[in-house]
Each structure stands twice: as structure tokens, then as C-alpha cells.
Amino acid sequence: MKKASDMNHGEERYAGTINACFTGYIVQAIVNNFVPLLFLTFQRTYGIPLSQITLLTTLNFGIQLLVDLVSVFFVDRAGYRVCMVAAHVAASLGLLLLTVLPGIMPPFAGILLSVIVYAIGGGLLEVLVSPVVEACPSANKESAMSMLHSFYCWGHVGVVLLSTVFFHFAGIGNWRVLALIWAVIPAVNAYVFTKVPIASLISEGEEGLTAHGLFRMKLFWILFVMMVCSGASEQAVSQWASAFAEKGLGISKTAGDLAGPLSFALLMGASRAFYGKYGDRIDLDRFMTGSCLLCILAYAGTALAPVPALSMLSCALCGLSVGIMWPGTFSKASASIPYGGTAMFALLALGGDLGCSGGPTLAGFVSSMAGDNLKTGILSCVIFPVLLCAGVCLCRKEVSRDGI
To answer: Roughly what angle, to the nearest 10 degrees, separates helices 218-238 and 50-71?
Structure first.
């Protein structure tokens, strides 16, 4: 009874920390999903070709990937609090620069520089938020992780919905004002993280595995590939949903944003919230395998459906199918490699961001090779849920073999 009481007291003490982490993933959603809503606006306003627009996504996740890698060497030394505050400051500053730099230097260069700054913040958040929540007292870690990641989806929904409403009433030409508004959220949360308590991921007297130690584990490499496929499965559709709806299906900007990114994010969030609430009753491996199979069907439907309505429905189902992939892989890693520490979370985040960069880039490259046919590009990315499904099976066999 004392232990349960202590756990409840611990959960109450860290409630503010967990809420700040929820907001941190909303910031991550702003960083990853606001600018893609402006892809065609940048193309029309600044005359930037689609091939260069693709670089914005590639650079965003490429910088996040680089931050994931180097964070292995400095996060533990600098401390989670300092790094978390710095992450939010960088995210806010990047959004602020986006409103200024394209007007005082070559537009594409200005946008790229802004993306670099907020991507640094996004990369740090990807490394930090999950282990901070993992370290907080919680009765069900898998459910807590899934619920945490659902807030990325709710942030995604908020970005798309509120941006669409803003553009409808204020006009797309006033996108800089909206960028300033979004910049306020990470600025405020940076202050919150100077106050809330932050627990240690590894117990006193213990040490987390080093990167070298992780690299020697077959199980880690399986999980790493699963993270690559999780990020790619999620972002290949998410990053191109607005442009796909508007250009590939010929519907309006407003309808495209609502039918594409918004429905995708809503169903992705619903999937994560569902597992967050009922995860203690559901086998994670079965849930992930079923999600992979649904994702394969959804990708095929998005690309091959004969009418726009079915393509949009399939696009939304992609969101439902990918919801568990990222948090599920994190949960499997935490349970299978309990002493992975900061290095494991950072390297898995690197794998996820590699997928987040590679998925949309593959879709854009194949689309370009097919004469700017986005349907062909999206269909090519079906390889990612196929590999992830195989990874779930291999991970289960490896854990069973080692008796973990």
C-alpha cells in the first residue's frame, strides 16, 4: 500500500512535467506541419520549383537527424532541463525568422535558414520528450507513451485546423502573422520547463548503455530499422497530404487541408489515444502488426483509388494505421533494453527522423521521375510498412530467444 501511495504521490508531483511534455509535442507538430501547408504558396509567391520545395522537408528532418546524433554526446552533460529550454527557444526563434528572412535575402535561402533553426529545436525535442516522460512515475509506461505521442497528433490537428481557419478569414498572404502566433507556444513552454521537476531516466548508481554497447546488439538494430520505417510511414503521406489533395486530386486549398492533413492527424491521434487508454488490455505486437497491414492497404488505396473521395478516405486511414508505430517502437525498446538510457532514445529518434526525411523525399523523388505524379510517389512508400511488419516479428523472436 505504501508503494502504491508513493507512486500516486510521484505521479501528482510530476503532473506539470508531463503536461509540459505534452505541449512539447504540440511544438514538435508546429515545427513539422506548419510550413508544409505553405508549400504551394511558396511555389507561387517566390517561384520556387517543386523539386526545391521538397528540400524543405528533407532539410527539416535532416537537421533533426543530425541533432539526434550529436545529442548522444552532450545531453547528459548539459542536463535535460537546459536542453529542453534550448529546444523550445530554437523552435520559437526559427518561426520568428521565417517571417523576416525571406524578405531581406533570397527567399528560398531565407526559408532554408529558418527551417535549420527550428529544426534544431525539433531534433532536441524528439530526443528529450519521450525519456523525460519515461522517467516520470507511471502505472503503465506503454499507455503513457502512446498518450504522449497522441499530443503530437492533436498539435497537428490544431495547426492544420486553426491555420485553415486563419487563411480563410485573413488570407493566405498573411501567413507571417500566423507564424508569429505559433512562435508564442514554444516561447511560453520554454519558461515552464525552467520550473517543473525532471526525474532521472537511470536510477542512481546505474549507468545507461553507450552507443557502442547498443551497436553490438542485434535487437537494437531491429528496433532502429523499425523506427526508420515508422517515421517514413507517417510522414510520407503527412507531409504531402495538402499538396496531394490540391494538386493530385484537383480540390481547393481549404478543402485539401481539411480532407488531407486534418483527417490524417485526427485518426492518428485517435489511434494513439485509444492505445493510451486501453493499452493494458491489448497485445502491442498484434496491434502494431494489424496497423502495418492496414497501412499497406491505405497506401494502395490513396494512390490507386479511381475517385478523389476514396483517395482522401484512404489518406485518412493512413493516419489511423501509423498511429501506434512510433510510440509502439519506443515502448518495445524501453521494455526490451531497459538500460538503454539517453543514448538509446537519441539513436532511435535519429532513426525515426531518418525515416521522416527519407519517406517524403522518396515520395517527392519518385513523383518527379513520374512527371510530378504524386500518386506514384506515395505508392512507392508502401515498402516502409512492409518492412516494419517484418521488424515486429523479428523483434519478438529476438526477445523470446534472449529471454528478455
So the answer is: 150
The amino acid at residue 361 is T
Q: Are 115 and 304 in contact (CB under 8 A)?
A: no
Helices (H), ranges, 305-382? 308-322, 325-336, 341-369, 374-380
Spatial neighbors of 371 by CB under 8 A, at least 6 apart, are: none
pLDDT tens-digit readout, 17-45: 889 999 999 999 999 888 888 887 888 88
* CATH class of the domain comprising 2-402: mainly alpha
Domain ranges in the chain are 2-402
- Dihedral sign for Cα 295, 296, 297, 298, please: positive
What is the pLDDT at residue 116? Answer: 93
Residue with cell string 548503455: 209
Q: From residue 156, how far is each of 26, 73, 265, 310, 329 by CA, in Å?
A: 7, 30, 6, 22, 20
Whole-angstrom Cα distance, residue 21 to residue 381? 31
8 Å CB contact between 351 and 224: yes
